[in-house]
């Protein structure tokens, strides 16, 4: 396996394995047979900070449309709605992360995956995803600084 790609978020190294692809909504997609296993990227985990609650608002084996609400995640930063990353079918949830959402913080590319998803939506190669992050990093920093000054 190739070395992880690294995106610097200030002094924090956000790592991105090259054995999976990514989407603009800051999720990773890793092929698992006929479906993709999906989870939060290091970038999204860093912005969320400590995740301590996760809930799904739909059932497993449900067809979804891109940007359809599928759940909520609560962290030390905020309560955030989770949306489907693309049109497809949400096949199964990771029960372990429902029982222990801290797995998202400690092992987001492994045991902290969120769900399995069947889709034909295009994804970004790791280098393309880092280009996307780089292009939006300045605006993201302004948002973060604004939140810290509230």
UniProtKB/TrEMBL annotation:
Keywords per UniProt: Lipoyl
Domain of life: Bacteria
Residue ranges of domain Lipoyl-binding in the record: 35-118
PROSITE patterns recorded: BIOTINYL_LIPOYL (PS50968)
GO process terms (BP): glycine decarboxylation via glycine cleavage system; protein lipoylation
Gene Ontology cellular component annotations, sorted alphabetically: cytosol; glycine cleavage complex
Keyword Nucleotide-binding: no
UniProt-recorded name of the protein: Glycine cleavage system H protein
Database matches in InterPro entries: Biotin_lipoyl, GCV_H, GCV_H/Fam206, Single_hybrid_motif
